[in-house]
Amino acid sequence: MESLILAIDTSCDETSAAVTCGQKVLSNVISSQVYLHKKYGGVYPALAKRAHEERIDAVVEEALRRARIGWEVRSRSRSENEKWVTAVAVTQGPGLAIALEVGIRKAKEIVNNVTMKQFNNRPPLIAINHLEGHIYSCLAENAKGLPKREIAFPGLCLIVSGGHTELVLMKDHGKYEVLGATLDDACGEALDKAAKILHLGYPGGPIVEKLAESFYKASPCHARGRLNESKLSKPLKDKSNLNFSYSGLKTQFLYLVEKMTEEELGKNLHQLAYTFQEACFEQLLRKTAKAIEMYQPKMLLCGGGVIANKHLRSLLRKLAKNHSLPILFPPKRNLITDNAAMIGIAAYYKYQRKEFVNNPEDLDREPRLSL
Ligand code: KG4
Ligand code: ZN
Fold this sequence. Notes:
alpha/beta, 5-stranded mixed beta sheet, globular, binds 5'-O-[(R)-(carboxyoxy)(hydroxy)phosphoryl]adenosine, binds zinc ion
């Protein structure tokens, strides 16, 4: 069934709207609030809500404009050549409650004000789990449908973001089994906190990546190995489950840094970033390898903001190669961090299954929604 989906995501600090057609991304507009939250060293919820409210209308308009899509507002007569949005999708959760509300309100407003040729009525509303979106970001294709992407089931999904670190077995479209999740902090959150401990700014992941990369390039292999062995432990090393833990690493890192003088800190900054990042990724790799052995998936799918890290992607590619597994990442950076295109692609599969919100008025945000 051909579909043109208008998707909205306001789960955290990006206001985003996109138009997708199946897995094709026709537009993906993202208005980032990062600079607003920088001085707080993390997302400030009330500020996020206000910024979403100020931007959502323009972001939706721009997504439709870029995709050359219109909709028939009840009062307007429609032209025969006009293309139509066939459904509206919105992130229901997980995320910040007061931020999610803004996107949901906008989606309701759109379905209430629009009539569709196909439906003689309101377009259907589709509620999407943000984590499902991060998985489906791996299937994104350009407007011409390239490169073609398809999931081989069962797929093993590794989601690594600012709020989540999860291993999920995807048995079919829409069928998930969570195999493991973080018991405390998420990996991205830990990287953000490490950057804060080093007084480096927000978001920490990309800053830590840059510092770590220059240390990695400048130092010989044996030195890098010794450094990691000596400084930080391997969380949940003796546990046979697939859960993650990052708060212990963060505390160890804090103690390590607190013992240093300003001068030592300045001298060792790159090395510290490298050490912490390696410890974070070691855990991701170890648990993913374990999940591959236990569940024998046919494919590895990786999504979430931390997957923007080049070094992590190369480690995961090696791991997949060692297990002769195909691996998928979102094809572009703006599909890795929070965006609405991934919500539209996830919605396409729900659209095919006709999983619509029964009564749009009743749709409420679910800040702790799980897969
Ligand atoms: O998926 P995302 O945009 O938002 C959530 O759903 O949480 O992920 C944001 C997280 C932040 O913690 C940020 O520091 C991290 O992704 N991140 C990175 C990189 N780019 C963003 N972490 C490591 N390396 C990067 N290049
Ligand atoms: Zn996200």
